[in-house]
Amino acid sequence: MTVRTYDTDLLIIGWGLAGLVAAREALRAGKRIVVVDQESRTNLGGQAWWSFGGLFFVDSPEQRRLGITDSLDLARQDWFGTAGFDRPEDARPREWAEAYLAFAAGEKRAWLKELGVGFFPIVGWAERGGYTALGPGNSVPRFHIAWGTGPGVLAPFQAALEDAERDGRAVILPRHRVTQLRTDGGVVTGAAGDVLAPTGAPRGAASSREGVGAFEVNAAATVVAAGGIGGNHELVRAQWPARLGAPPTSMVAGVPAYVDGSMLGIAAAAGGRLINGDRMWHYVEGIRNWDPVWPSHGIRILPGPSSVWLDATGRRLPAPLFPGFDTLGTLAHLRTTGYDHSWFVLSSRIAEKEFTLSGSEQNPDLTGKDLGLLVRSRLGKGAAGPVQAFLDHGEDFVVRGDLDALIAGMRALPGGEALDGARVRTEIEARDREMANDFTKDAQIAMLRSARAFRGDRIIRTAAPHRILDPAAGPLIAVRLHVLTRKSLGGLETDLGGQVLGDGGAPIPGLYAAGEASGFGGGGMHGYRALEGTFLGGCLFSGRAAGRAAAAAL
C-alpha cells in the first residue's frame, strides 16, 4: 500500500471551531499548516456548525442596554461556585478558568466583532441556579446569541483557512483518520493514519470507516482538536460518574457519531495525561428528532421557566430543579428515579413564548440573519415553525384539549405506563391554585414572576404567568424528555499555551490540544458544571492559545 506523505510546520487534527481558530492563528504567524479530519469536506466546521451560537460575555454592551449589572468579580463568583473544583489535578483548570473569565470580560467580544461576528441584542439567562449566591448558576443573564448562530461564528475562521488553501499555505485533507501520533525521543513529530473511502453522506450523517490507503504527516508541532466522547454512548457509559447514579439505558445523541473520543486515547498513548474524564455535560430536555441526521439524533429544548417538570411517575421535581435552572442537578435527581425519561407539562401559550430548540438548523431566522422571519417567529402568534414541526410530528409530543386526554396520551407512549395520572392531576391543579393571587409558596411561580422583571425575558422568553388549565391558553402539551449527550468537561491536561502535559506535569514537546479534547482548556476549565455559552467560547479561547503558542515555538 502506498503511503502519502506530507511535510508541514503545523498539523491540526480536527476542523471544528477550535481547530479552525488554531489554524488561523498559525497562518497569521506565517506558518504552513495541514488540517486533517476523518469526515468529508461537507462537515468542515464540525460540531460548531450545528450549535445555537451561544457565547458567554461579561459586562457587555448588550447586557448594559438591558439594565444588567455584571462584573468580572460576579462572573468569577458564579464560575467557581458552579465549577466546584476540588481535586489536585484542578490546578491547571483553575488557571484556565481565570484566564477565560478575563477574556470573556475583556477582548473576546471586540475580537469577534473585528472578525465580523455580530450578536442578537437580547441576552439569555441560562443556568439560573436558584441556590445561594455562592452556589451554581448565573447570577445575571450572560447568554449572547451570535447573529448567524454557529455558522456565523465559524465563518471568519473557515474563510481564513480556505483563503490559505487557495494560496498554497494550507492543505486540507478530508477522510484522513489519525490512528497514531508519531514520536521521536519523546517529541511528537506528526501523525499517521488511514485514508478513508470517499462518502456522499450529508453533513452530520454517519460515514463508513473503510480504509483505502494510508498517510503520514511530518510536522514540527501538532494540535489535537478532535472533540470529546458525546457521540460514543458506550464510552459515555464507561466514564459515567457514580455521583450521577447509574447511566441511562436509553439516551439520545446531541452530537454526530464522529464525536467518538478516539483521539483522546491516541494522544494518551503518545504520553498525554487525561484528567477529569468523569466530568461530562449532558442535558435532560432531549427529544428525538422527527427528521434525524445522525444515529439516535436528539434535539434539546431550550425551555423558559414556566413548564411543570414531572418525573416518569408524575411527581413534580423539587425546587430549584425548574426548566433552565440547574442542568446537572436535575440530571442527578432524575437518575435516582429509576427511569430514563421525564415530562414537561405546559400550555400552548407557554410553548409559543418559551420553547426554543437548540441548533443552527432549528433556528432559521437567526442562522439566516432573516429579520422578518425573526419578528414573525419570536413575536408573532403561534409556535415558531421548527417547534410546530415537532408538535406535529415529534414522537415525544402529546397535544390534547383537556387534562384527562393529555394523561391518556402520555400513558400511551412507551414508558408512559409508569405515570400515575391522579398524581399528574394533583400536581397541575395545585400549581394552578397558586396563580390566583400575587402571593405564593411555589418557588417556581415566584421565580417566573421575578424573571419577567428582566426585559429580555418579558419580551421573548417568559410567558405571562397563567393557569396551565386555562382553556384560553390551550391546548395542553406534554413532552417526554430524554437524556441527551453533549460535552466532555475533562480531557488532555494542558498549560496556558495549550501544550499537552505528561503524567509528571512536564510539557510534551510538539504536542498541543484545544477545544473539547482539552476539556476546553487545562483538562477541564468548567469543573463539574458549565455556565452555558462557554463551549464555543472555550473553543475560541483554547484554539487561539494553542495556535499562537505552537506557532511561536517553531
From TrEMBL:
The keyword Magnesium does not apply. Pfam families: FAD_binding_2. Residues 9-536 form the FAD-dependent oxidoreductase 2 FAD-binding domain. Keywords: Flavoprotein, Oxidoreductase. Transmembrane segments: none annotated. One of its GO terms (molecular function) is steroid dehydrogenase activity, acting on the CH-CH group of donors. SUPFAM superfamilies: FAD/NAD(P)-binding domain (SSF51905). Signal peptide: none annotated. PANTHER family: 3-KETOSTEROID-DELTA-1-DEHYDROGENASE, KSDD-LIKE STEROID DEHYDROGENASE RV0785. This is FAD-binding dehydrogenase. It comes from Microbacterium lushaniae.
